[in-house]
Design goal:
Strand content: 5-15%
Structural class: alpha/beta
Family: Belongs to the class-I pyridoxal-phosphate-dependent aminotransferase family.
GO biological process, one term: amino acid metabolic process
CATH superfamily of the largest domain: Type I PLP-dependent aspartate aminotransferase-like (Major domain)
Order of helices and strands: HHEHHEHEHEHEHEEEHHHEEHEEEH
Helix content: 40-55%
Number of strands: 13
Largest sheet: 7 strands, mixed
Strand order of the largest sheet: 2-8-7-6-5-3-4
Catalytic activity: L-aspartate + 2-oxoglutarate = oxaloacetate + L-glutamate
CATH architecture of the largest domain: 3-Layer(aba) Sandwich
Keywords: Aminotransferase, Pyridoxal phosphate, Transferase
CATH topology of the largest domain: Aspartate Aminotransferase, domain 2
CATH class of the largest domain: Alpha Beta
Distance between the termini: 45 Å
Cofactor: pyridoxal 5'-phosphate
Length: about 375
């Protein structure tokens, strides 16, 4: 057989199918399977959005090609929503709609990191970010985070790493974070933006979960008239609108970056899913209150989960945010890979082990509590206690 790509051979296998496979032989003795592996909304889209999706899928106009950077109606709706949320002016010319946020990240890094250039990722990292860099042959420079910092990135540590690695062209922040849930404050984001600007490095800010934050601007970057010269923003419609199967995300950026991005958009996606774009152009303004209610729902679910975990204090939550709890194994327990496999196979609790999110995370599990109903979350401590 002819050889395959060595980059793909070095890339880790998809994490969620691997973790779910551990539970294939679970006998049901502890109760129904509790799947906390994937970040999916724990409630359905509203009926009105489902109806719109069906209507738009049946329109002949939506069966043809559209603009490579997305249909104007959705770009305008998202620009208006972001302008309102951040108290700054963002225009539709800053917005490109993508076939999901994972593809958005891949296209952004292909634009920012040329030959020999590297990208800095916070460690633990979102595994698909690391996989995308591996497949593209882009070196990844870790920015280690620590329990004592609440798993927030340290700008002084980042500055030292940037100074030692002049090949770094972009620094990635995910807030609220995946996998830890940690939320960067506006001041911390501003510090990183200034750090990147000073060193001529792009700041890539992935805010997939920003709709689940408390009201108020998550940062002030868009108020800087020069933000387009050094900041790229990533967004996903999947979680906020409960439509991950529609595969729609967005990139915000301008100037020379946007001109280069259009080449990547045209090559890798031609155009995003058009029926989904049309439905979401309606949904962005129409479902604003529904989204706000879901943010409150998720905050309540997080509080409930934290309270429930008090019953098993040996399992410590080291960080927690919009969708995830980054949970430390009890002292003396096997490493996270062994623990995750045993929890799935013997106790019906499916989680993701820390090593899936990079080296040095052997004592942690990621629990995606947002995708489970209250009764399921209440059962988690009992499964952990059995282990």
């Amino acid at each position: 057989m002819p050889p395959l790509s060595p980059r793909l051979a070095r890339t880790a296998a998809p994490a969620i199918p691997a973790a779910r496979a551990w539970g294939m032989g679970y006998d049901g003795a502890a109760g129904p399977v509790l799947d906390l592996t994937q970040a999916v909304p724990g409630y359905p889209p509203p009926d009105a959005l489902l109806a719109r999706l069906g209507e738009e899928a049946g329109r002949a106009a939506n069966a043809g090609y559209g603009p490579i950077d997305g249909d104007p109606a959705l770009r305008e709706a998202l620009a208006a929503d972001i302008s309102r949320a951040y108290g700054a002016t963002v225009t539709s010319d800053d917005v490109a709609i993508t076939a999901g946020c994972n593809l958005a990240f891949h296209m952004v890094t292909s634009v920012l990191a040329g030959d020999g250039a590297a990208v800095m990722l916070p460690l633990p990292w979102y595994f698909n970010h690391r996989m995308a860099l591996e497949m593209a042959g882009i070196p990844c420079v870790p920015l280690p985070r620590r329990t004592g910092d609440g798993f927030l990135p340290d700008p002084d540590r980042a500055a030292a790493i940037l100074d030692a690695n002049p090949q770094i062209r972009a620094l990635v922040l995910v807030t609220p974070d995946n996998p830890t849930g940690a939320v960067c404050s506006p001041a911390l984001i501003a510090t990183f933006a200034a750090l990147c600007r000073k060193r001529g490095v792009w700041l890539v800010l992935d805010e997939t979960y920003r709709d689940f934050l408390a009201p108020g601007p998550a940062h002030g970057l868009f108020a800087d008239p020069e933000w387009r010269e050094g900041v790229v923003h990533l967004y996903s419609f999947s979680k906020a609108y409960c439509v991950p199967g529609q595969r729609l995300g967005a990139i915000l950026g301008g100037g020379a970056f946007r001109a280069a991005l259009l080449k990547s958009l045209d090559t890798l996606q031609i155009c995003p899913n058009r029926p989904g774009q049309a439905a979401l152009a309606w949904a962005v303004p129409a479902l604003a209150e529904w989204r706000a209610g879901n943010a409150r729902l998720m905050a309540g679910r997080a509080a409930m989960f934290r309270d429930a975990m008090a019953a098993v204090p040996e399992w410590r939550i080291d960080a927690m945010g919009a969708y995830f709890a980054w949970t430390r194994l009890p002292d003396g327990a096997p490493d996270a890979l062994a623990a995750a496999e045993a929890l799935a196979a013997r106790h019906g609790l499916q989680t993701l082990p820390g090593p899936f999110f990079g080296p040095g995370n052997e004592r942690h599990l990621r629990l995606a509590f947002a995708n489970a109903a209250e009764a399921a979350l209440a059962a988690v401590p009992g499964r952990l206690a059995r282990y």
